[in-house]
């Protein structure tokens, strides 16, 4: 039987609807051999995730997905694999990014109020139910209070990147995000590259730039990457000696069209990722010379 993995998913620690341990249980039901938790800008769910992985007999990776900016492009995400929750420098930087998210939420509440949409922080906290408050919670609350007919309207009209109330949150640049992960022994991977909106030549130049800052992989399989795009990305991965990775980007009910384990990602990618992690020390030492 072919072994499959999913290296991109989110829990209630950020904007998913499944708890970290529930993700592991679902992965077990689906017959996956290895999974990674990659919540947005937080490692809060990792301990629970790893413990349940041991219990269920599934290989689990402590990961993260960092939001970043680069030259006017929409938000660019960088995945990081093999986080050490005991690394104080990493945890402090993540706390800084989470604080930036909180400031953004306050600004978003104010902008929506100017447009006649009144949401309180208390209501959002109740909607988030212990999760880190994010735009999906704003959208859900706007639907409940009758300001929009559905969450798609909330994003397209108000809180999406082109919405009337959009507020960007403070972020690292993409090279900074990659370098931060690399220097802390975390394997940096460019997430869903085709969603960035770059043409092939610009993407190649971008990858070359990020490699100088420590990029080690690119996500070549994803729920929003076509098979044709996937093949091209795999060619780029091999061309630039980058590890290919893949995952569904599962969020539970917040992205109901995305299913865990779909599309299929081969276990061989996981092996290559572990090998690259083991090679990271020698790569870091070479860069210092």
TrEMBL record:
SMART domains: POLIIIAc. Residues 5-70 form the Polymerase/histidinol phosphatase N-terminal domain. Pfam families: PHP. One of its GO terms (molecular function) is 5'-3' DNA exonuclease activity. This is Polymerase/histidinol phosphatase N-terminal domain-containing protein.
């Amino acid at each position: 039987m072919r072994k499959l993995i999913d290296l991109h998913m989110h829990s209630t620690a950020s904007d998913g609807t499944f708890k970290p341990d529930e993700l592991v249980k679902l992965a077990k039901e689906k017959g996956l051999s290895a999974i990674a938790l990659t919540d947005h800008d937080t490692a809060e769910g990792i301990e629970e995730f790893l413990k349940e992985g041991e219990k269920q007999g599934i290989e689990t990776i402590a990961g993260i997905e960092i939001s970043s900016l680069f030259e006017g492009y929409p938000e660019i995400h960088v995945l990081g694999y093999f986080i050490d929750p005991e690394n104080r420098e990493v945890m402090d930087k993540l706390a800084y990014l989470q604080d930036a998210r909180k400031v953004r939420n306050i600004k978003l509440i104010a902008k929506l109020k100017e447009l006649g949409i009144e949401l309180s922080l208390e209501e959002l906290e109740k909607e988030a139910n212990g999760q880190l408050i994010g735009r999906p919670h704003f959208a859900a609350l706007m639907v409940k209070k009758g300001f929009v007919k559905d969450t798609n309207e909330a994003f397209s009209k108000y809180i999406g990147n082109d919405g009337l109330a959009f507020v960007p949150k403070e972020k690292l640049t993409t090279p900074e995000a990659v370098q931060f992960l690399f220097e802390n022994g975390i394997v940096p991977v460019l997430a869903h590259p085709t969603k960035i909106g770059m043409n092939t030549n610009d993407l190649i130049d971008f990858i070359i730039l990020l490699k100088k800052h420590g990029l080690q992989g690119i996500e070549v399989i994803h729920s929003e990457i076509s098979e044709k795009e996937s093949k091209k990305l795999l060619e780029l991965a091999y061309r630039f000696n980058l590890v290919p990775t893949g995952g569904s980007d599962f969020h539970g009910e917040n992205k109901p069209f995305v299913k865990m384990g779909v599309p299929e990602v081969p276990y061989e990618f996981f092996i290559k990722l572990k090998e690259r992690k083991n090679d990271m020390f020698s790569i870091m030492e070479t860069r210092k010379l």
